């Protein structure tokens, strides 16, 4: 990397921090800090959902599969697109209909305080591990790219995420998510044409690709695995408490549907663009083996990107990954403030609730940094956490989604399903290999993790068929959320204006990098002009919204 790349990383990092801090709101209450006053534009919420599900692992893990097996990596990610469409059609509007601030609040309404406490404490404990696991790869990426020691990178980027999430709440998370989406998309769109040029164009790529490189499935990624993976993602994206916030914070059920649909369309298109660089790098160097495959994406970037643009790509990867941390910090604080502190102190004033909200965000952020710092000493916790995530996603989030549609599930049935599924899944992951000499492969592990809780819930559905239970629905939500607070509209206009101004700055900076580039200038300048045009359109939209409100 060149000096210009380092300057790009610094300038973009400062810009993202400033954009997040600009959403600080002294008039904030619980609904605005955690729910954007129900005034979150659907396209912002959809982009935030997309980026919140994103991480550097997208390029590392899926990039390694794309380099090794080709189109299979795209097929796997297309399952997320199908999940998004199903969520938009069925699950997202149901969440919006409940009228709750958090998914934990729905669990409380539906199943009572005992079940609520169990899921709340489990979610908070798991969020610490997940956040640390997401923050650690960011530090490794920075370390490999710039040489900055991992522990300094963890503290630096962890502190940045905590600062603007604590200051601006959900609005700050959303604004930075949208900005980071544009930065990352710009970087990827620049890489792809330069990578094709490097290998001699599309015909040369197709003719030189290994046999079976464009097959939809292959190796351990069988049709059964891909189907189970798609179902898992539908439950995880549709039920994870951090993602539920994206469906409940938009004005209407119709806009909640659009959030899911936008996620689906983005995951239908973007995997093709993302996976092409590591697939093309197979033509440049076909000798990567083992863990070297994980660097295929960055290797292609280093191969084709001019000075300054590599810094843009690294910045996009860094903040795309911290998006997951930001979203989780905000919803963890929401759960603690709304579903723990508020129930202990039902007479708490808005002032005290907001102090707790900000202090808990800060505290959870510090814990996240500490967990990330301990990762090297704990020996591969990232892989363990990700593996457990595949086994726990449906047992933890599936019952709540089922309860959105079912009148029959009870407190006992959902707790039994979760506890039994977790126990069996964890046993086969960690206990069965040494005790029974039985080790499930990836397909079997995924199918078990998805099918067992669904089967148990279906059994209870039959057993309790004569015991109807009311589905909680807010009176405000039943009116479809047509009335949105004036303050929420003002924050919405401010958010759009902040994104617009940030995009104008991003576009102009990329334009400068294009003019300085020794190669790839047309591609860079084209992307820069598109970002400036987008920023200009959003700025006009912001002024129009402010005039109307």
From TrEMBL:
Which CDD domains does the entry mention? SLC5sbd_u1
- Residue ranges of the TM segments: 6-23, 43-65, 71-92, 118-139, 151-171, 178-196, 224-244, 265-284, 304-322, 359-378, 384-405, 412-432, 447-464, 499-517, 523-543
The keyword Cell wall biogenesis/degradation appears for this protein: no
- Keywords from the UniProt entry: Cell membrane, Ion transport, Membrane, Sodium, Sodium transport, Transmembrane, Transmembrane helix, Transport
Q: Superkingdom of the source?
A: Bacteria
Write down the membrane topology: Multi-pass membrane protein
Q: Which GO terms describe its cellular component?
A: plasma membrane
Organism of origin? Parapedobacter luteus
Write down the InterPro entries for this protein, in alphabetical order. Na/Glc_symporter_sf, Na/solute_symporter, Sodium:Solute_Symporter_SSF
Molecular functions (GO terms): symporter activity
Q: Which family does it belong to?
A: Belongs to the sodium:solute symporter (SSF) (TC 2.A.21) family.
Localization, UniProt: Cell membrane
- Biological-process GO terms, alphabetical: sodium ion transport
Pfam families per record = SSF
Query: Which protein are we looking at?
Result: Transporter, SSS family
């Amino acid at each position: 990397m060149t000096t210009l790349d380092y300057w790009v990383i610094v300038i973009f990092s400062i810009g993202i921090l400033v954009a997040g801090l600009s959403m600080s709101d002294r008039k904030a209450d619980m609904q605005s800090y955690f729910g954007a006053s129900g005034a979150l534009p659907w396209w912002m919420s959809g982009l935030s959902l997309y980026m919140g599900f994103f991480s550097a692992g997208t390029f590392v893990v899926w990039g390694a599969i794309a380099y090794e097996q080709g189109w299979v990596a795209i097929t796997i990610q297309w399952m997320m697109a199908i999940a998004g469409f199903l969520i938009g059609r069925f699950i997202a509007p149901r969440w919006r209909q409940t009228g709750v601030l958090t998914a934990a609040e729905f669990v409380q309404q539906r199943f009572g305080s005992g079940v609520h406490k169990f899921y709340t404490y489990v979610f908070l404990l798991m969020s610490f591990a997940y956040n640390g696991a997401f923050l650690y790869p960011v530090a490794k990426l920075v370390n490999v790219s710039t040489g900055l020691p991992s522990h300094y990178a963890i503290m630096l980027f962890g502190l940045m995420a905590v600062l603007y999430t604590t200051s601006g709440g959900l609005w700050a998370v959303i604004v930075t998510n949208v900005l980071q989406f544009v930065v990352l998309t710009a970087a990827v769109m620049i890489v792809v044409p330069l990578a094709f040029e490097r290998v001699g164009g599309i015909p040369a790529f197709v003719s030189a690709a290994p046999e079976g490189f464009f097959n939809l499935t292959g190796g351990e990624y069988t049709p059964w695995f891909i189907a189970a993976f798609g179902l898992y993602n539908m439950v995880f994206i549709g039920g994870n408490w951090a993602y539920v916030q994206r469906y409940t914070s938009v004005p209407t059920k119709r806009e909640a549907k659009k959030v899911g649909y936008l996620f689906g369309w983005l995951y239908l298109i973007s995997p093709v663009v993302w996976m092409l660089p590591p697939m093309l790098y197979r033509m440049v160097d076909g000798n990567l083996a083992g863990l070297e495959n994980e660097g295929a994406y960055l290797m292609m970037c280093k191969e084709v990107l001019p000075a300054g643009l590599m810094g843009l790509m690294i910045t996009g990867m860094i903040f795309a990954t911290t998006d997951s941390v930001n979203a989780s910090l905000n919803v963890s604080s929401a759960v603690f403030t709304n579903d723990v502190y508020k129930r202990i102190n039902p007479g708490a004033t808005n002032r005290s609730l907001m102090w707790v909200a900000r202090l808990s965000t800060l505290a959870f952020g510090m814990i996240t940094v500490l967990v990330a710092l301990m990762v090297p000493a704990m020996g591969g916790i990232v892989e363990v956490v990700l593996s457990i995530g595949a086994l726990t996603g449906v047992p933890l989030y599936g019952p709540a989604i089922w309860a959105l549609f079912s009148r029959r599930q009870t407190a006992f049935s959902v707790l039994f399903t979760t506890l039994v599924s977790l126990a069996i899944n964890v046993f086969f992951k960690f206990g069965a290999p040494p005790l029974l000499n039985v080790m499930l492969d990836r397909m079997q592990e995924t199918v078990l993790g998805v099918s067992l809780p669904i089967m148990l819930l279906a059994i209870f559905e039959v057993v309790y068929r004569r015991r109807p239970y009311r589905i909680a629905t807010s009176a405000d939500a039943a009116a479809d959320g047509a009335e949105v607070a004036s303050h929420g509209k003002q924050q919405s206009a401010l958010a759009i204006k902040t994104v617009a101004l940030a995009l104008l700055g991003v576009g102009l900076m990329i334009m400068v990098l294009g003019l300085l580039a020794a190669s790839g200038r047309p591609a860079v300048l084209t992307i820069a002009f598109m970002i400036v045009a987008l920023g200009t359109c959003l700025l006009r939209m912001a002024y129009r919204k402010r005039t109307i409100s």
